[in-house]
Design goal:
By secondary structure, the protein is an alpha/beta fold. It has helices at about 20-30, 45-50, 80-85, 95-100, 105-115, 130-135, 135-150, 175-195, 195-200, 210-220, 235-250, and strands at about 5-10, 35-40, 55-60, 90, 120-125, 160, 205, 225-230. The chain is globular and about 45 Å long.
Length: about 250
């Protein structure tokens, strides 16, 4: 059975004082019913990894380069993340695709590098509001899956996060039917490409304005194995209820 995962993406937020929440989260969710991951800025990965119990909270990066080393000013390699204590990395987030012009081919190369370094690659896919309104969502998601997910993907080294761009940080959330349609589509595509064994073992996360108030409803949707959470992951008071909702769903399933 796929273990549920609550992953927090701090984006360009947080400092050393923010790391105190790791211990609070570990105390509140010490039962280990679900996997918890925090992806802080690069500057905090080493300190976060030193503070966290790897058995309870995995620390991840927010991006990596596709090369292991070289003349790439300002970039960081998957090997460097691993050496700093990270166990995972977010790749292809819509903010990277939009702000930095990353293509799905770029994401695939980065994911392959993450796998080679022994990191879990959290590969993000999602449509814009214009694409949703034009009823092109599944075509967009299908294309991103085909080009972003490398052949090295397994259930152990890959997580796919569906994040509709129009729901990130806006307070807008797709209906549960819309979320279910996309997650079921992703599951079918992954099974078709990699076979039932791998296809059924890859965890699928939903991301986009997830809160304690709507988490239980989202986690009850077919093929939703957890969440990739942005702003709400910066506070124990906001993130812990989301984790609790996922724990309850895990116990019920």
């Amino acid at each position: 059975m796929r273990r549920k995962l609550a992953a927090g993406n701090w984006k360009m937020n947080g400092d050393r004082s923010t790391l105190g929440m790791l211990e609070a989260l570990a105390r509140a969710h010490s039962g280990g019913a679900v996997d918890i991951m925090i992806c802080p800025p690069f500057t905090l990965i080493d300190a976060a990894a030193a503070l966290s119990d790897a058995a309870l909270i995995t620390i991840g990066g927010q991006d990596c380069h596709s090369e292991s080393a070289g003349a790439h000013t300002g970039d960081i390699s998957a090997d460097m993340l691993r050496a700093a204590g990270a166990g995972a990395v977010i790749l292809g987030h819509s903010e990277r695709r939009g702000d930095h012009g990353e293509t799905s081919d770029d994401v695939r190369a980065k994911a392959r590098a993450a796998h080679e370094a022994g990191l879990i690659a959290i590969i993000c896919v999602g449509e814009s509001l214009a694409e949703r309104e034009a009823q092109n969502t599944l075509d967009i998601i299908g294309g991103q899956l085909s080009s972003s997910v490398p052949d090295t993907a397994t259930g152990e080294n890959t997580v796919i996060a569906y994040e509709p761009c129009w729901a990130i940080g806006t307070g807008l959330t797709p209906t549960t039917d819309q979320i279910g349609e996309v997650h079921d589509f992703i599951r079918t595509r992954i099974e078709r490409r990699f076979g039932a064994g791998v296809g059924r073992s890859v965890r699928l996360l939903y991301g986009g304005s997830v809160k304690g108030a709507n988490a239980a409803e989202i986690f009850a949707v077919s093929n939703v194995d957890g969440a990739l959470v942005g702003g709400a992951s910066l506070s124990v008071d906001d993130f812990s209820p989301i984790i609790s909702a996922l724990e309850a769903q895990s116990s019920a399933s």
